[in-house]
Amino acid sequence: MALALISAILLILLVLIAVRFGLNRGQLTNDGEPARQPTMHASGIYSIIRSSPRENIMTAKPDEDEIGKYISTLNEDMRGQTLTDEDKHALLNQWNSSINTSITTVEEGDQCDVEFYYFDFIPTECPVCKQYFTKGKFVTREEIFLNPCILPPFHPGCTCKIQPHHGKENLRETTELGMLPLFKNQELPALPDWKTVIKLSNE
Ligand SMILES: [Zn+2]
């Protein structure tokens, strides 16, 4: 009799533990899941992805003050070319206008649902960035949303730009560019150090 009673109590305890454990697991799943949901599959996410990258790029890149202070400490660029005050001023202006170009390109692309952007060098090839990617490497709009740091410029004096890929009409041209994805397995590729400064050419 006593044995049966003990067995019954043990059984009830086991059931209680199992129920409790099950509840905890349920809570963990509920807490953990929203953060892990793939961005692209959640409904209505396109409107979030297509919000202006302005704020995100500003937090992803060093700000104007930081860039200006750093440039002011340099006497020459990474190739040993002398930097005058005028050069430094031009570099800072170019940095700001280049960020704005990236933002505007994406904002305009969002107006016509551009999904892909490819990298280009304008007006000349960037000697720093060419070691990291070639002209024609492309990123998706979602990758830009998730990693705003992949928008150019990557350093003062950077001539890298992104161009919208509208689809069929540019296919031939982009095939010639050797369009390949910049991301492999959704991993953020290595990007140039923003402290690599290249004097602007006067051409
Ligand atoms: Zn560059």
Structure characterization notes:
- The chain is α+β, with helices and mostly antiparallel strands and 203 residues long.
- The protein has two domains: 35 residues; 130 residues, no CATH class.
- It is built from seven helices and four strands, in the order H-H-H-H-H-E-E-H-E-H-E.
- A four-stranded mixed beta sheet has the order 3-1-2-4.
- Helix 4 runs antiparallel to helix 5.
- It is elongated, with a radius of gyration of 26 Å.
- It starts with a helix and ends in a 22-residue tail after the last strand.
- The structure holds zinc ion.
- Zinc ion binds next to loops.
Features:
203 residues; alpha+beta; 9% strand; binds zinc ion
Structural class: alpha+beta
Helix content: 40-55%
Bound molecules: zinc ion
User: Number of helical segments?
Assistant: 7
Total strand segments: 4
**Number of separate domains:** 2
Name the average pLDDT.
81
Uncertain segments are 21-43
Q: Could you tell me the strand content as a percent range? A: 5-15%
Cα distance spanning the termini: 100 Å
Order of helices and strands: HHHHHEEHEHE
Biggest β-sheet: count, sense, barrel?
4 strands, mixed
Calculate Rg over CA atoms. Answer: 26 Å
- Sequence of strands across the biggest β-sheet: 3-1-2-4
Quick one: overall form? elongated
Task: Show the helix and strand layout.
Layout: H1 2-36, H2 45-49, H3 54-60, H4 64-72, H5 85-111, E1 116-121, E2 137-140, H6 141-146, E3 160-165, H7 171-177, E4 180-181
Helix pairs in contact: 4-5
Bound molecules: zinc ion.
The site of zinc ion has 8 residues, from loops.
